[in-house]
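JOB MANIFEST
job_type = single_chain_structure
chain_count = 1
residues = 722
[input]
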Amino acid sequence: MDSLSNNVPLLPNNNLKIIPISNKENSEAISNAVTIQSGYKSYGNFSVLRDLNLNVPVGAIYGLLGPSGCGKTTILRSVVGRIFLDSGELLVFGKEPGTKGHEVPGSLVGYMPQEVALYNEFTISETLIYFGFLHNMEKENVTKRRNFLIDFLDLPSKNRLVKNLSGGQKRRVSMSIALLQEPKLLILDEPTVGVDPILREKIWGHLIDISKTSQTTIIITTHYIEEARKADKVGLIRNGRILAENSPEYLLHAYSEISLENVFLKLCIKDESVPVPRAKKSNGLRNPLCEPQINEGIDNLNDEIPNVQIKKGKKSFVARIKKSVSKTFRVPKFNNFLGALFKDSILIRRNWGFLIFQFLIPVIQISLFCLCIGREPYDLNFGIVNNETDFNDSSHFAAKMYVDEMSNKTFKKHYLNWSDAYTQTKSGKLWGFIDLSENFTQDTFQKFNPIRPKNSSIAGSNVNVYLDATNQQIALITQARITDAYQSFLISFLPYLPFEIDPNLLKSPIILQTPIYGQSNPQFINFMAPGIMATIIFTLTIGMTGLMFVIEKKEGLMDRSWAAGMNAVEVLSAHISSKIVIMTVQITILILISTLVFGVKMNGSVFVAALLLLLQGFCGMSYGLACSSIAKDETEVMQITIGSVFPVMLLSSIIWPIEGMPGWVRFITNFSPLTHSAEALRSVFSRGWGLETLTVWFGTLTVLVWSILFNLIALLFFNIDN
């Protein structure tokens, strides 16, 4: 035992007695590619990393071994800068990941996550070209590396679509991405799962070769514990702590075992026997190899880092926000923008059916709106109770004359007695009925008698209307058309009077002059159409963006791109650039169909209207991005977007004027992303106003402000770890 260094844990006589070890000298620590000191990370009440100490020398292959759910993936994601530790220090090549000017995340690191994380619509070649953009590689270099990796990893044709590959082939494509730019730090999460044994040996041979010849540092996790014997150094992790860390041969000799699995088992048994202070809640499940335990007050099982008390304090939320802001406002890289644009263009090209559907949706929506909304009801079943039945008598003709004046387009007339008309209206078969007295003609004569009309004659000349007023629009239209019919009837009836009356006396004294804006006979469709068009563009772009980004995030695609150096600004910029053509076509369709086909009045500049709609689409994309940054999966993003669009629409005076809302609701409407832009668009359509008017430019300004706000929310949340 004396022949062994003091820097290893020993197991004499199968009794796990730990001999304390000392730190490496500072000069040795400088040679580490990755260093974690007292790392602590939790998700809610569940601690994932506990007092973690880890050292990976430059140019070494480091095997990270441990059961599922004990922190391996969290360590790897921390190293590539995707999540922050709550406390402790993490350095990669001497700098914290995400530090300005540091290429981690970026080209210094090649990352193969546990998920496949590949775009199914890409070919193998396109996949490597995309990541070549992110690493700013020359085209010739990408081609050279692609040919080598396809041959080395035994991949099929470079033009084979990823979705047509087997599971094992997909994992090998995933590995080729990590190897593409020949990074100085290679992080591989379960790279040999599902790989043929011969190819597994070939992969390990290549990893050993690049670690020796190129000083590439490799961190690898694997389910095959004995496979890790090929590593220069292994770290055995349990419950978020490194139990032991040294070369495989050294650990086997120190613990007098022939397999690393037995070494790990002994360490776990000893760890299980240590009393546990209850500092954090567990997940409620007991697993002898993975139940949270904290070794405090005993000799450390790590052969390089001395025992350090667990730091439970978290970095403040403000500090995390500051880090997020610094990442958010990093200067975008043009090569990353081109890569994101390349990705979006391929996804569009490979989904022609969906692209056509995106163009058809606004056609269907605006057509249905124009066909279904704002048109006057017609063919209304309406009862006529005419008690003046002797039509051929010259003294009993007025009732028939009046009924004839009632529009045959609006009313489908049913001649009934009073009892039947009432019963059918009560049962919902009629929208109402009119009741004309048996002396309607004579009473109407007496009504206009200039000497002294009788009160009974005035009552007998009335048109009694009984309505089913449950539908406001039908009730209002019915009243208006009955009134119009009576006005026309009076003009036709005057020549039959035995005395002269000036027809002008029968006209309303209220004279409606030519409207300053709009039409003499306003159409509700002209009021709603601009707001509906803004809503269509807003909701379409929310769907295009929100669902796409949350799927990328859920499947690990976004994590992988960002580990390669992409940031949210570049992603959003490319998304807007690729979708602007689609939005332009959609907006053109909306304007042409609404104005040329359905006659919606466009009194202002088409270009100003198109600009407002384009900005509204940009706002929708920004809102979709914000929703996807908060949501965890497709269900959540759909609930957020669908649940919020309808209230926004109601509050934006699109369906009903703001002037008809309570005062406190009017105040709230000012905080809807559609309110002022919809009013600006309505002013362009109906009033012919331009950007020189307050309403239009203020609406333009507010939609820009909302877009910026949504983008900031998205950028911050994308850069804050969950």
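[summary]
The chain has four domains: 1-108+186-273, 117-182, 335-372+523-719, 380-506.
The first strand starts at residue 32 and ends at 43.
exit_status = 0
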